[in-house]
Structures are given as structure tokens and as C-alpha cells.
Specification:
With 385 residues, the chain is mainly alpha-helical. The protein has one domain (5-197, 248-382). It is 72% helix and 1% strand. It contains 22 helices and 2 strands. The chain has a two-stranded parallel sheet. Helix 1 (8-28) crosses helix 5 (89-96) and helix 4 (80-87) crosses helix 20 (320-336).
Amino acid sequence: MITRKNLVYPFLIIVLHQLLTVYIHVFLFPIGYLNQNLFILDLLGKSYTLSFWWIFTLDALNVVVFWLLGRELFSKYSYMPAFVYAISPWGSYSTSACSIYVLYLFVVLAFFYGLIITKKGSKKGMLIFVAAFFIGVYGSFYLFVVFPLFILGLYLADKSLRKMVGKYMLFIFLIPTSLALIVFANWHPFINILSNNVMLFSDPGLVNVVNQYRGESDVAGLHLMGRLSENRYLFSLEFLADKFLLHIMPATIFTSKEKLLGFSFTPPIFLGLIVPFFYGVWVLINTKRQLYLIPLSFLFIIPSLLSKEGISLNRFIIFLPFLVYVLSLGVAKLLENKQRWLRIVLTSTALLLIFQILVAASDVRTREFERYIRYFGQNYEIVDK
């Protein structure tokens, strides 16, 4: 039961997160994303841009839903997912740049929350689940693909969910089916949307690499070997596998190897949380709880995987709920464990986090805007490719 007393922590966490977001926005304004529109509006030739205040509100709601998810997943440390999200720069930078993926993150979180409480017997859970599914499928080209695949995977892998979702399956899949009819009626706009969103192999340099390799093979007298060992399809598969591995590398998430907004030196999630992350992974694998969710979670990498860039952190943010869950699990288990060496690890994590937050705050205030100007000049509109 939600009371005034247990609302104190989430309220303070929301305030903390919004203060960090406003702090970043003050020094980065007017830098923001360009050409962001809902999928259904693109199909119908309409346009609507969410204002910063809409995105800012949705970001606050993301903290709330993380807290609600924490209440369902962690009995004692229900505030932990909200806190981990609140202190991670990823959401704050996306909100500051007015990214539409803040909306998509909210939809994904609501989707999972509805699914979890439905499994626990809540009738309103199915309503939340279906509403999030509807908004996601109609609002995002990527969720139009990912959500049905995820539901299908759950249906095949989890017997309890199969029984629960089975009676609603026909109704659920009427949603993407109805949108598919709209797609067929607006085929040419859909082809444009497809070409703008699936840019994985749009770089001509990829074909040039294959042609160069084949040319060198021909010169060496290995024409057949060159054809068999490297062709457009095989190279594309290798390239896709390399991109996938880049997405699941800790360096991508906990360092500034991949730049937030394409230029920032602030990591998506602070490196201080890497030990709880690995501990959470160990706990997850060791307890063998619903391990089928790990490969299913990789479906949410698809939007970034299909980008022209190596990794699009703007799109990759919809994978954040899985990372936050593992981090929260790790922190919660560390707090529960009374061993002295783990207490030392936790204390070191807290000190490193505080140090990184102070360094990042100083860097945002003194260098971030100048760094953007040095990279991109006076063009303040970021294009997500």
C-alpha cells in the first residue's frame, strides 16, 4: 500500500533527477535532436514535435515508473531502480536534448509494469499493458517490430504468461495488424520511413571493403576463395555481429567511449556502478531466474543496431530498463550481504560515484558547450542516423 511515508524517497529522487536534468539543460541549450516524429504521423504525412516541457514531464514519470517497478521486483529496496536511473546521465542528457526516445522509454517501462502486475493478478495491469503496447506500436517504427516479437517470445517461453496472455492474444495482435493495414494504404511514406530508420548497410564504405578484398584476392590468383570467404551477405552478417558485441560491452555503457549526444565526455552510466552491475549479472545467472529474459531483452537493442552509427545511444536508451534492473539487483544484494569485504566494495562504489558526479558537473559547466561547438560548429540540431 502506498502511503505518505513511503512517497518521501521517490519524491526526493525525482527532485534530484530533475535538478540534474535542468543543470545539464542550462549549459547545453539550445542543442537538441532534429526531425523526430511519431510513426503514425509520419505515415499520414502529419507532424508534431514534443516540446521540452512534455519531455521533461515524461522523464519525471520515468522515475515514477522505475519506482513502481522497484516495488514489484524488490521488496526492501523498492527505490533502488529509480535512484539508479536518477543519477545516471543518460536520461538527463536525452531529456535536455528533447529526444523522443524519452517518450519511448516511458512506453517501454509502462509496458513492463503492466505485464508484471498482470502476472500478479491485477486487472488494471492488462489495461496498462495494452495501452503501452498500442502507443508503442503506433508511435515508434522500432517498437512496431520489437513489441510483437517480445510478446511472441514470452508466449513461447513462459507457461504462466502463455495462459495469461493467451486469452488476450487475438486482441493484442489486432493492434499491429490494424497498423499494417494503414502501412499498406500509405506504402510510399512507409518506404521513406524504412530507408530513414534502417541505415545499417547504407554506408558505401562497407561495399568498398568487400570489393577491395575481392580485388586483392583476384590479383593473388584466389578468385574463387575470395568469392567464398567474403561477399556482401557474409560481410553484412559479420558487421552486424560486431555491432551487437559493441552494444553489450561494459565500456559502451560505463565509459565515454560512445558519446552522449555525439560529443559529451560524460558516460551514459557512471563507472562507479560497474561492480554492482557485474555482481547483479552474477546473481541473475547464479539464481537462474527467468534466464530466457536475457536473449529477449536483446530485442530492444534492434533500434540502435539498425542505425548508421556504430551505436546510437539515443535509440539504445530503451534497453536501459534491463541495465537498471541488473544494477539494482547488484546494489540490493550488496546491501543485504553482511560480509566486510563487500561493505568495503559498496563504500568504494559510493565514493567513486560522488567523485564522478562532481567531475561531470564541473565538465558540463565549463567545457561541454565549447566541445559541441568544436565538433559541430554553430549547428545546434543533432541528427540521429
